Amino acid sequence: MSKLMKLNLKVWRQKNTQSAGNFEEYKVDASPDMSFLEMFDVLNEQLIETGKEPVAFDHDCREGICGMCSMVIDGRPHGPKQGVTTCQLHMRSFNDGDTITVEPWRANGFPVIKDLTVNRSAFDRIIASGGFVSTNAGNAVDANSILVPKEIADEAFEAATCIGCGACVSACKNASAMLFVGAKVTQLSMLPQGKPERQSRVVAMVNQMDAEGFGACTNTGACAAECPKQIPLSVIATLNREYISAKMNGK
Amino acid sequence: MKLFSFLFTSSIGRKVLMAVTGLSLVAFLLVHCGINACIFFNDGGETFNAAAEFMAHNWLIRSAEVGLFAGLLIHIIQGLALTFNNQTKRKEKYGANAGNANSKWYSRSMGILGSLLLIFLVMHLKHFWVVSRFTDAIQETAGSTLFDEMIIVFTDPIPVIIYVIGCLSLAYHLLHGFQSAFQSMGINHPAYSPIIKSVGTAFSIIVPLVFAAMPIAMHLGWIK
Fold first, then answer.
1. The domain that contains A83 carries what CATH number?
2. Do residues A37 and A82 both lie within one domain?
3. Per-domain residue ranges for chain B?
4. Which terminus of chain B is more solvent-facing, meaning fewer CB atoms within 10 Å of its CB: N or C?
5. Any domain includes A21
6. Residues 6 or more apart whose Cβ sits within 8 Å of residue A49
7. Band of the pLDDT at B213, cuts 50, 70, 90?
8. Which chain A residues touch B103 with a CB distance below 8 Å?
9. pLDDT tens digits along B122-138
10. ipTM of the complex
């Protein structure tokens, strides 16, 4: 086993949505082979052993696909590495003796539930407003009855890799959710299955996005730079294009 | 009109309007820069004054001027409103910031750069536009043409410094704004976007540089 690293942590502690939070400082000895979340497990065991309240943080799959591990590490969502989630970030990306600041996603659309855990149900409501395709129930249709060109399928899939983690919102200076909405709209508008509801979908989703209290996009590109799934900025252009054409059609 | 109301109400519509008005101002800059560059003929302002005379008395140009001011006002009001509105979207600020790790400082500072430009613009309009349009000051002062007015204004070093700062703000405002306008209108394509970005970068450097050269050259007496 490699030598343990001595780390100083500044962690955001907040009792509930209503209360004011503050940073607390902790010391943790962690192995460089640990993931960032495993390091937090060590911290929490330490806290429990000393009779203190453990730090609440979200996590589920711990393999980079569920999008739950919402931590802003030293001012960057999911930490300093590109294209990884917090659970896939390892302590070897830090140095012995480092002071690491850990905070929750901060946006009006994502209220803090406790400590580092935020409520991301605003994204669920955006999806529910139009991020789906309507199909009639009945016999299972043949898999190749609707032909999709390979390039289109690939491009739609690239957008569909969005895990809805909310790093885009947390990185954006305006707390804008356009990379998330752009990814969903791009994915569905490119495929034949998504075409019938194409125009009503984009308008409904943008209306819901605005109602949830997310800001407007100013094209700084921070969202795409921080996205753990590396969704490109071009999905926002697609969103704009789809929205403008729907609006010009009187939707 | 209901068809276009989204340009003032929705998050995407509002930035589309910023893009359209912004690009119309880019078109204006090109004309403005081209005409003013006539002073570099260094013929005592003869070519420049002829061009200025044409711009001041051609009915088509004067009509376009109304549209230019309308676009400018929309760009200013919408830009300020969006900036303030966007700032309210994160009530609790971050304890640690790493903005430079994921974006350029000027792309995050469009509100401040735009405000600097607005301050410069008020002064700039007072120096030349108000004087040439609404008063007889040009006739009353020593000079009698717009070129002479430029010579007078730029004798004083303070306006020269302010104009250079104004041009620097313009350069950074354009560096983000030019390519951003196309993205806002939904134009992002692997073949065309690199061209748009290159043209935008060249425009953002060349145009402010030519503008900044005017007060400097006049102050140093290179242009007489």
1. 3.10.20.30
2. yes
3. 11-83+105-219
4. N
5. yes
6. none
7. very high
8. 173, 220-222, 225
9. 999 988 887 777 765 45
10. 0.90
| Partner residues linked to A182 by β-bridges | none
Residue-wise pLDDT for B18-30, tens only, equals 999 999 999 999 9
The closest of A130, A133, A140, A127 to A193, measured between CA atoms, is A133
Are A96 and A129 in a shared domain?
no
Indicate whether A94 and A126 sit together in one domain: no
Chain B residues whose C-beta is within 8 A of a chain A C-beta are 3, 6, 10-16, 82, 85-99, 101-104, 107-108, 110, 176, 180, 183-188
Inter-residue contact A33 to A90 (CB < 8 Å): yes
A238 lies in the same domain as A126:
yes
Which amino acid type is present at position B133? R
> Given the structure tokens 């001011």, which residue do they identify?
B69
Asked whether the predicted pLDDT for residue A228 surpasses 70, the reply is: yes
Which residues of chain A have a CB within 8 Å of the CB of B85?
215-216
Element at B175 (helix H, strand E): helix B157-184
Tokens representing A197? 């509801």
| AA letter at B221 | G
State the residue range of the domain holding A170.
120-133+147-248
Q: Does A222 lie in the same domain as A127?
A: yes
Measured over all CA atoms, what is the biggest interatomic distance in chain A, rounded to whole angstroms?
A: 64
Would you call B12 and A101 a contact, using CB atoms and an 8 Å cutoff? no
The confidence score (pLDDT) of residue B135 equals 61
State CA B188 to chain mean position distance: 24
Same-domain pairing of A64 and A19: yes
Asked whether A46 and A150 are in contact (CB, 8 A), the reply is no
Q: What is the CATH number of the domain that holds A160?
A: 1.10.1060.10
In a domain, residue A91? The reply is yes
